[in-house]
Amino acid sequence: MTAYLLKRLLIGIATLAVASIVVFSMLEIVPGDPARLMLGMNATPDAVQALRDQMGLDQPVIVRYFEWIGGLLTLDFGKSYTYSVPVLDLVTERVVVSLPLALIALALSTLIAIPVGIFSAERRGRAADTISMGAAQIGVAVPNFWFALLLIYIFAVWLRLVPAGGFPGWSAGIWPALKALILPAIALALPQAAILARVTRSAMLEVLGEDYIRTARAKGMPRRTVLWRHALRNAMIPVLTILGLQFAFLLAGTIIIENVFYLPGLGRLIFQAITQRDLIVVESVVMLLVAMVVVVNLLVDLSYAIVDPRLRTNR
Amino acid sequence: MTMPAAEPTNSQEAGFVAQALRNRSFLIGFVITVFIAGMALLSFFWTPYDVTKLIVADRMLPPSATHLFGTDQFGRDVLSMIMVGARSSIAVALVAVGIGMGLGVPLGCWAAARGGIVDDLLMRFNDVVFAFPALLSAIIITAILGPSATNAVIAIGIFNIPVFARVARAGALAIWPREFILAARAAGKNRTQITVEHILPNIANLLLVQGTIQFALGILAEAGLSYVGLGVQPPMPSWGRMLFDAQTRMMVAPYLALIPGFAIVFTVLGLNLLGDGISDIIDPKLRRQR
């Protein structure tokens, strides 16, 4: 298992390395001089040059790349061009909105999808199965930002149960903060739940057709035990794979959803940074998002090894 | 996934049509897809009203007999905008699938044919691109290159490449050990010839199914990018942009937010059903599970 996990870890590190090169070189080709942008139109050429020197913009690309990487590794993300505050402060301020949002959405999606998937698989071909899979088919087709608009209309405008947007901050108390996150989380979660329910159902059906399930039933094991102990555990591998992919998707999805609900998260930060050409913020946020995705994928790989004992010895 | 034992023959193709007519997913999906595509084509020649003409006096009219889906904040006919918007959605998603297939399929086939280090490197690189949240990258690409339909196509297309490479490779790897490939090798054909003449026709089905799925995802991605202002640019109507414009007017004119949303759901649903239908027909083992 160590070899297997080591291999996955190396792939994760390689992913981050490639991502950093791609992000760095993409932003390298963007037109516009950051120093001039920071100082505004009326700055003298001398002042711009002084700032360029201070920011190290005239150094060779390779040097700047490694300085940037070194900074990321020591949590020194540099200073935002427009806000003139350390990027780390900006990011930590926003991550406490985006990360809980993505995690609540992931939890909701899992809590809805896995029971629905199992329930449908158990009743394959019957009315309950047809209805829930029909609903899932529609759920997959719904764009999350449109679903968000519908939710705002129903629960915020019409029923006035929750705010239509904005975020009071965690300092306002857990409950008001959660209340502001609940609609965005549902909007993100439901389309993902539809995908997950379909995957769970087909993984369960695949397993339920196996000989060992028939054997377990034939020897008189209670249906519930067969389902939960034998079938679900074996069906978990594809489900876990999708869960890992979904986290990446949810994290990226928060970018659009945060714009629908005016939430001050990483998504809105990255949008503002892009329009203001605040490249150092863009670079840092993108790398942070990719790093979160890589970590979650590693956790998924680790969970494979827990679910499937064969992986612990074979690879 | 199982493959047909040999290259498709005429009788198998006839069987496909007969089975297609009996497959409910396929039929519904096919009808919806043809309907949307027809609507988009029709919009090149005729729309109920001119979408470039702004008639302020007619703004925000609720749905009625003269304006079936009502009018927007500039007095443009929403039905006409939906028709023209279908055009942008389909064009963006279709070209993005084309980019993904055009580059991904050769890469996947090459990896499967060469094996060894080429295969390893290509697939590892694939994993890396896969780990990127595609939507995030699309937002960055369009933000850097500037918001336009073309850049949205490129951004969505790039992330179709690893998907098709993966499907093509998996499909090709299942075909390579077959006897008819061995026969072709014995007849002195090289790897490229075998790939083109024998591998591709046998994985075409798989690619078609993946194509419809990526097409549907492309429609959703285009709508998302247009919604945040990074896709098709106004005054060209697009479904995502219509939703953005509707957001602030939801209290007065909820139909403005409902109709483009339904158009997206309907189109994506149709494509997904079509894809499900095709994969049911070509792979009966999967049908048992549905």
Automatic annotation (TrEMBL), chain A:
Annotated ABC transmembrane type-1 domain ranges read 95-300
**Localization (cell):** Cell membrane
Give the membrane topology, semicolon-separated if more than one. Answer: Multi-pass membrane protein
Q: Which InterPro entries match?
A: BPD_transp_1_N, MetI-like, MetI-like_sf
Concerning PROSITE patterns, the annotation shows: ABC_TM1
For this UniProt record, give its keywords in alphabetical order, as a comma-separated list: Cell membrane, Membrane, Transmembrane, Transmembrane helix, Transport
Q: Kindly list the GO CC terms recorded for this protein.
A: plasma membrane
Q: Does the record's keyword annotation contain Acyltransferase?
A: no
Q: PANTHER family per the record?
A: DIPEPTIDE TRANSPORT SYSTEM PERMEASE PROTEIN DPPB-RELATED
In Swiss-Prot or TrEMBL terms, this protein is called ABC transporter permease
